[in-house]
């Protein structure tokens, strides 16, 4: 491409493994890309709320807090499960919430200046993370295999699963830092950027859901994955990281317009 858990006991079905959610590298890539496309007003507001820290720096916050039981309610916010071939709007919603309702709630909390600074900052950090999660296709998947966590495969001879392949294995095997990847993926022309940023959260989750369906067909249980799988799917990985970054910028620019 051109340069351009603890909660298993609390919820009946979750889609995440302990390695989940784009890993640290993926989230930092999306944050770094988004940083390049913020308006001046958004940059100033974010710098104030985040005490000068970058989007990449805070992008893993929602994972970092998972070890603290007091944040247990947010586990279900990282993903959504609904049948393949169905739209999110037509699906049965979880009583615990999901990534779509989480993003909507975070946006509302951050925009409301009547909320405490602490509450706005907390939900802002979650929002940054969840937009990244939304673009990891296995976070918009099906419940029966916990978002691919139960589909066991081997990655270069070591045990893994379909979810972990897309959270960590692919991106770590590529061997670039988050700044290197972001640099390669952040240079996007105005026309392409506008096309990527079109749509709503509902469109984006259904887009990831459709990709997820393709990924289920990309492996067989117990399959040995390696160079060929990377060759076939790295461009899709890069596409989703880029989309996540550009769309995060759009969401934040709208929040702070």
TrEMBL record:
<protein>
    <submittedName>
        <fullName>S1/P1 nuclease</fullName>
    </submittedName>
</protein>
<keyword id="KW-0378">Hydrolase</keyword>
<keyword id="KW-0479">Metal-binding</keyword>
<keyword id="KW-0732">Signal</keyword>
<keyword id="KW-1015">Disulfide bond</keyword>
<dbReference type="Pfam" id="PF02265">
    <property type="entry name" value="S1-P1_nuclease"/>
</dbReference>
<dbReference type="InterPro" id="IPR008947">
    <property type="entry name" value="PLipase_C/P1_nuclease_dom_sf"/>
</dbReference>
<keyword id="KW-0540">Nuclease</keyword>
<keyword id="KW-0255">Endonuclease</keyword>
<feature type="signal peptide">
    <location>
        <begin position="1"/>
        <end position="17"/>
    </location>
</feature>
<dbReference type="InterPro" id="IPR003154">
    <property type="entry name" value="S1/P1nuclease"/>
</dbReference>
<keyword id="KW-0325">Glycoprotein</keyword>
């Amino acid at each position: 491409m051109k340069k351009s858990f603890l909660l298993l006991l609390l919820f009946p079905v979750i889609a995440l493994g302990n390695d989940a959610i784009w890993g640290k590298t993926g989230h930092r890539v999306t944050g770094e890309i988004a940083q390049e496309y913020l308006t001046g007003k958004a940059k100033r507001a974010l710098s104030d709320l985040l005490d000068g820290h970058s989007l990449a720096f805070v992008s893993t916050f929602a994972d970092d807090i998972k070890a603290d039981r007091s944040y247990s309610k947010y586990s279900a916010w990282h993903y959504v499960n609904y049948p393949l071939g169905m739209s999110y709007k037509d699906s049965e919603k979880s009583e615990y919430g999901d990534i779509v309702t989480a993003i909507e709630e975070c946006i509302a909390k951050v925009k409301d200046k009547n909320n405490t600074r602490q509450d706005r900052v907390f939900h802002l950090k979650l929002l940054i993370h969840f937009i990244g999660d939304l673009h990891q296709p296995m976070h918009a998947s099906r419940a029966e295999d916990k978002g691919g966590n139960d589909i066991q495969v081997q990655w270069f001879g070591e045990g893994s699963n379909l979810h972990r392949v897309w959270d960590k294995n692919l991106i770590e095997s590529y061997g670039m830092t988050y700044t290197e990847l972001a640099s390669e993926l952040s240079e996007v022309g105005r026309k392409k950027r506008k096309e990527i940023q079109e749509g709503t959260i509902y469109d984006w989750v259904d887009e990831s859901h459709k990709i997820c369906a393709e990924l289920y067909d990309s492996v067989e249980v117990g399959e040995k994955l390696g160079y060929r799988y990377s060759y076939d799917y790295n461009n899709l990985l890069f596409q989703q990281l880029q989309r996540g970054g550009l769309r995060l910028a759009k969401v934040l620019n709208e929040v702070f317009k």
